[in-house]
Amino acid sequence: MQNAGVTLYTRVRFKRPLRHHASFELDVDFQVGPGITILFGASGAGKSTLLDCIAGLLKPRDARITLGQRTLQDSAAGIFLSPQERNIAYLFQAPALFPHMTVEQNAGYGLAGAAEPERKAAVFYLLELFRVAHLARRKPGEISGGEAQRVALARALAPSPRALLLDEPLKGLDAELKSSVVDDLRAWNRVNRLPILYVTHQRDEVDALGERVIALDHGQVVSEGVPHSVLNAPRTKRLARVAGFENYLTAAVQELCEADGIMRARLTGSGAELELPLGFAAVGDRVTVAIRAGDILLAIERPTGLSARNILEGTIDSVEVRGSTVVCRVNASAMFLVHVTPGALRALEIAAGKRVWLVIKTHSCQLLEE
Amino acid sequence: MEALWLSVRLAASATIVLLLIGMPLAYWLVQTKWRGKFLLESVVALPLVLPPTVLGFFLLVAMGANGPIGKLWVALFGHTLAFTFFGLVVASVLYSLPFAVQPLVAAFESVDGRLLDAAAVLGAGRWRTFREIILPLSVPGVITAAVLSFTHTLGEFGVVLMVGGNIPGITRTVSIDIYDHVQSLEYGAANRMAVALLLISFAVLSTIYAVNRRVWIPWPVNRGD
User: Which residue from A29, A53, A287, B44 has the fewest beta carbons nearer than 10 Å?
Assistant: First the structure.
């Protein structure tokens, strides 16, 4: 059943009133081809709302959604297919299995029109693929969370959908379980070549799944591309936070050195200068810079002979051990969070009050749009 | 004993009718986005606050030979609706409507919305979703509705007196019978009937509570999000 695969095109403008006269506005326009596309963004970015629109559970006033040759919604032409007619599989955060039915009945629910033998065959093919066939006679209350999510996946895929929407489907599962479910899903999609939209706000899932990422913030697509480029160059502060940037600094641009591809900026509230990658800024502009705590080096003597251009002197404010990561708060003109290993902590005898130097590469400084 | 048998028949008939009317009504109330639905909710709840004699009076007027429903009934069947068993069933259905509808609304509302979304995405239409998802998950609520309708109708007095009068075997229910005995100072007979009614009500309720722990739904329906 090899097929060329279809493209899901989505243009949605959707305004939803919130409390206190505020409103949330979703305004996106993108298309995804066969394979897994990650929809990445902080909670509240509009990811689940977008999936509800594509599935037909919400009816945005202004939208055009097509899947291959089929038009699912075209508000200009007055077309709106109900969720029942769309043939799109949708997996929610919770498995949402029907609690009064067995695993087998759940998995076969979308095959109401099929004759019993075909239905059974399709159900068991998928239950076996996702390694839950032995649970066929159990009720959802009698199986584990990971098993339930696999059954939900089998149930969603049984009616041979034309696209798959996954809303943080692996939330709450441990890493090993996660990767095995993902592997199974990938194996299934190598044959079926469906467009899969996978919503998450967890970095590790993006790295594990990533073929392509669309980053969503405040209802808008802020960047898209391969995971590495989207996550390492987040363009807004909220996205940066989700992508794992711990340090945010504001600085005033002092000097642009276009020939060197850098600019110098002075940190707000101190005299310290930082060398930053050249951005869309003019002298005197205030810019926000994001730096990963893991990208900052800590030295106990003033380092020399390094290629890194930014060396800031400071003192350790506090040290906190979090599993295999040690979080140091360092007061160096501004407060910085720096991650080191427990081994480094012992070797350098780092403790509160100790004088240290921070080493930051120019290109570890990420300029954000406010 | 004739009165007791009549009361049980009346309560059973009213319960069946109430479930048949109450389920679509409750489902409609749960899923409608109509702004004026509070009006219908108020109408359904009216018998809770209205004295039974008031309800009975209106019904008597409507069902009587000169009332709108009564005239139609006479034209169709040649006799009035008032003072008949069927007239009592109609009156009881109105009288016990909130006791059927409210538990059903509460039960339907408590079904997880994501299950309904899942069914829709899997191609199940509204009727199939109701039949295969909502109804099976609302069994406790349906049982509550049936039990409350039955026991509430079993003991009704005011409405029956107004609409049905006191015709042995047709409209003379247990509570009318008890009242009649007391009026004639036949305390022994009244006592036997009263105890019988008490025991039946207790037996029905305790059976249901024993079978299902979560049968009672607090009043009024608690609409938590």
Answer: A29
Specify the DSSP class assigned to residue A295. Answer: G
Same domain, yes or no: A235 and A273:
no
Tokens of A118: 């075909």
The low-confidence residues of chain A, meaning pLDDT below 50, are: 1-2
What single-letter amino acid sits at B173?
Answer: T
Chain B residues inside the 8 Å CB shell of A84: 120-121, 123-125
Q: In chain B, how many H helices and how many E strands?
A: 12, 0
Provide the pLDDT for residue B55: 87
Cβ pair B124, B131 in contact under 8 A: no
Q: Does any CB of chain B come closer than 8 Å to the CB of residue A110?
A: yes
Cβ pairs bridging A and B (under 8 Å): 54
Q: Which residues fall within 8 angstroms of residue A225, CB to CB, at 6 or more apart?
A: A212, A213
Q: How far apart are CA A70 and CA A64, in angstroms?
A: 11
Per residue in B100-144, pLDDT (tens digit) is: 999 999 999 999 999 999 999 999 999 999 999 999 999 888 988
Whether residues A66 and A45 fall in one domain: yes
CATH for A344? 2.40.50.100
Residues A356 and A231 in one domain: no
Burial class (CB in 10 A: 0-12, 13-18, 19+), B207: exposed
Nearest to B55 by CA among B164, B169, B218, B176: B164
Q: Residues of B with CB below 8 A from A92's CB? A: 114, 117-118
